[in-house]
Design brief:
The protein folds into three domains: 214 residues, no CATH class; 139 residues, no CATH class; 95 residues, no CATH class. The protein has a two-stranded antiparallel ribbon with strand order 1-2. It starts with a helix and ends in a 5-residue tail after the last helix. It is 72% helix and 1% strand. The protein has 522 residues and is mainly alpha-helical. Helix 1 packs antiparallel against helix 2, helix 4 packs across helix 5 and helix 13 runs parallel beside helix 15. The chain is built from 22 helices and two strands.
Length: 522
C-alpha cells in the first residue's frame, strides 16, 4: 500500500512539473499529446488498474483524440480530447461502469475528491522513521478555521462596504508580502508560475488517484438493460406522490388500470399520427418538390428547422413514457406497438424534411457551423429513433438507450473531429461563390487555419460574383477596404502569436499557415 501511494504521489509531483513545462504560455497542441502519453503510461503502471479490453479501447480513443488536436487543432478536437480523457479515467479506474455518462460523472467526482485522497495518501508516506502524519494533522487543524473565516469574510464584505475596503487592503498587503517572501526564496520562479505548478500537480493527482467509493458502480450495477414486469405496490407513499396528491385530490387514489393506460396510449398515438401525417403531407407537397424561396426565406427555414427538431425530441420522450413499464407486456399491446412504429416512421420523414430544409439553406447561403450542426443533430435523431425502435420491439430499458447512444455519440464525436471544419467551410463557400451568398464577415471570424485559403482567394470572398442568388441573411455591409485591412491584421496577429510559441505548441494547421506566409519562429 505504501509503495503504491509513494508511486502515485511521486507521479503526481512529476506530472505537475511536466504540466507546468508543457502548458505555461503555450497553445494547446502537441503538449496535450505528450501529457496524455504520461497519464496513460502511469495509469498502465498502476497495478490496481486492470489492463482489460475496455482500458485499451479508451486509451487508444484518447490517444486518437490527442493526435486530432495536433492535426486539426479546433475547438471540436479539444472538446473531444477532454471528453475522451474523462472517459479513459472513468472506465480505467471503475471498470464495472457500463455507460459513458456514469464514467464522466465518476471522473468528475475523482477530480473533486483529489484533496482528500491526496492527503490520505500522504499520511502513508514515510522516509526512514519520519512520516508526514503529524504535519498533515496540524494542517487539518489550521485549514478548516481558515476556510470558515474566509467564507464569512466574503459575506461580511458583501454586506458592508467599509469592512470590504479594509479586508481588501489587508488581502493586498498579505499578497504582496507573500510574493516578496516567495521571490526571496525562489528568485527564478514567479508566484504565478508556482500556482500553475500546483494546479498541474493537483490535476494530475486527480487523474491518477482512484476515488475508492464504489457507490456509483454499485448503483449502476442495479440497472438492467431488459425490461422486467413488476407488480405495483399499493399504499406506497413517496414525496413525489404526496406532491401530486396535493393538486389532484382523490384522483390519485383511483387505480389507473393497465387497460385504461392502454386505451389512453392508443388514443394518443392515433391522434399524434393524424397530426404528424398532416404536417408531413404539407412538407412533401411544398418543400420536397419544386420548392422556391419567397418572402422571409431565412426566417422560415430557421424557425421551421428549430420547431421540427424540438418535435422530434418530444416524440421520442412520448414513446419512452408510454413504453416505460408493464404496458410492454400487455397482451393487446401489438396494436399500440404498430401505432408507435408508424409514428417513428413519420418522425423519420420529419427528419428528412429537416435535412431538406437545411440543404436549401446551405444551397443559398453556404456552409456555417450551425448548419452543419443541424445536419449532425438530425443524424443523431435518426440514431435515437433506431435505438428507440429496438427498445420498444425488444422490451429494453432506458438504461439500454443511455448505454448504446452514449457509445455511438462518442464514436461520432471522434469521427467528426477528424474533419477540419473551418477549412472545409471556407473552401466550400469560396468554391461555390457563383451560387452561394458569401458572408465575408463570417469567413473572417473563423480560425487562423483558414488564413492561407482566404489570402489566396481575396477577390472571390471579399468581392463575390454578382451572380449570387440571395444576399446573406446576417451579413454585415462591410466596405471592401475594411475587409482587406481586417484580413491583413489577422495575418499579422497570427505571425506575432506564432513567433512567441515554442515547439510545444506545434500543430499541423499553424505549421501550414506559417509555411504559406513564410513565417519563422524567433
Amino acid at each position: 500500500m505504501k509503495n503504491k501511494s509513494n508511486f502515485l504521489i511521486l507521479s503526481s509531483f512529476l506530472g505537475g512539473l511536466l504540466f507546468s513545462y508543457l502548458f505555461w504560455a503555450e497553445k494547446l497542441a502537441l503538449n496535450l499529446f505528450i501529457y496524455s502519453l504520461y497519464l496513460i503510461t502511469i495509469t498502465y503502471l498502476n497495478k490496481d488498474i486492470a489492463k482489460s479490453a475496455k482500458f485499451k479501447i479508451y486509451a487508444l480513443a484518447h490517444i486518437l483524440a490527442a493526435l486530432l488536436v495536433v492535426v486539426n487543432n479546433s475547438d471540436l478536437t479539444i472538446c473531444s480530447y477532454y471528453i475522451s480523457l474523462l472517459l479513459f479515467v472513468g472506465f480505467s479506474h471503475y471498470q464495472q461502469i457500463r455507460t459513458v455518462f456514469t464514467a464522466i460523472l465518476a471522473s468528475i467526482l475523482q477530480l473533486i475528491t483529489i484533496p482528500f485522497n491526496f492527503i490520505q495518501s500522504l499520511t502513508t508516506v514515510a522516509i526512514g522513521r519520519f512520516n508526514l502524519r503529524p504535519v498533515l494533522k496540524l494542517i487539518k487543524y489550521i485549514f478548516i478555521p481558515v476556510f470558515i473565516v474566509s467564507l464569512f469574510t466574503i459575506f461580511y464584505s458583501a454586506a458592508n462596504d467599509i469592512f470590504a475596503h479594509y479586508a481588501e487592503s489587508i488581502l493586498i498587503n498579505l499578497s504582496e508580502c507573500f510574493k516578496t517572501l516567495f521571490s526571496f526564496f525562489f528568485k527564478d520562479l514567479t508566484f504565478e508560475r508556482f500556482v500553475h505548478l500546483c494546479v498541474g500537480t493537483v490535476l494530475t493527482g486527480g487523474l491518477l488517484f482512484t476515488f475508492f467509493d464504489k457507490h456509483l458502480e454499485n448503483t449502476e450495477a442495479k440497472c438492467n438493460e431488459k425490461l422486467i414486469r413488476t407488480r405495483r405496490k399499493t399504499g406506497q407513499t413517496t414525496l413525489w406522490r404526496e406532491i401530486i396528491q396535493t393538486f389532484s385530490g382523490n384522483l390519485l387514489n383511483k387505480k389507473l388500470a393497465l387497460k385504461t393506460e392502454y386505451i389512453t396510449s392508443i388514443i394518443s398515438f392515433i391522434a399524434l399520427n393524424i397530426l404528424l401525417l398532416t404536417v408531413n403531407l404539407i412538407d412533401i407537397a411544398t418543400l420536397w418538390f419544386g420548392y422556391k424561396p419567397s418572402g422571409n426565406f431565412s426566417a422560415d427555414l430557421h424557425e421551421g428547422t428549430n420547431a421540427l427538431i424540438l418535435s422530434i425530441i418530444m416524440a421520442m420522450i412520448v414513446i419512452l413514457y408510454f413504453f416505460r413499464g408493464n404496458l410492454n407486456f400487455y397482451s393487446k399491446s401489438k396494436t399500440l406497438k404498430t401505432l408507435a412504429y408508424i409514428w417513428m416512421v413519420q418522425n423519420f420523414i420529419l427528419i428528412l424534411s429537416v435535412f431538406i430544409r437545411d440543404g436549401y439553406y446551405i444551397e443559398y447561403y453556404g456552409l456555417t457551423h450551425k448548419r452543419i450542426g443541424v445536419l449532425v443533430f438530425a443524424m443523431l435523431c435518426i440514431i435515437g429513433l433506431i435505438t428507440v425502435y429496438i427498445k420498444v420491439s425488444r422490451q429494453k430499458t432506458f438504461f439500454y438507450l443511455a448505454k448504446i447512444n452514449g457509445q455511438l455519440w462518442f464514436a461520432l464525436l471522434l469521427t467528426f473531429s477528424t474533419i477540419n471544419w473551418d477549412i472545409f467551410i471556407v473552401k466550400y463557400n469560396i468554391d461555390h461563390a457563383n451560387t452561394v451568398a458569401i458572408d465575408p464577415d463570417y469567413l473572417l471570424s473563423l480560425s487562423d487555419k483558414t488564413l492561407p485559403f482566404l489570402d489566396k482567394n481575396r477577390t472571390r470572398f471579399i468581392h463575390p460574383p454578382a451572380a449570387q442568388k440571395i444576399a446573406p441573411p446576417s451579413a454585415l455591409v462591410t466596405p471592401e477596404v475594411d475587409l482587406q485591412k481586417r484580413l491583413d491584421q489577422r495575418i499579422t496577429h497570427f505571425a506575432e502569436r506564432y513567433k512567441r510559441t515554442t515547439w510545444l505548441s506545434w500543430n499541423l494547421p499553424d505549421w501550414n499557415s506559417a509555411a504559406y506566409f513564410g513565417i519563422n519562429k524567433l
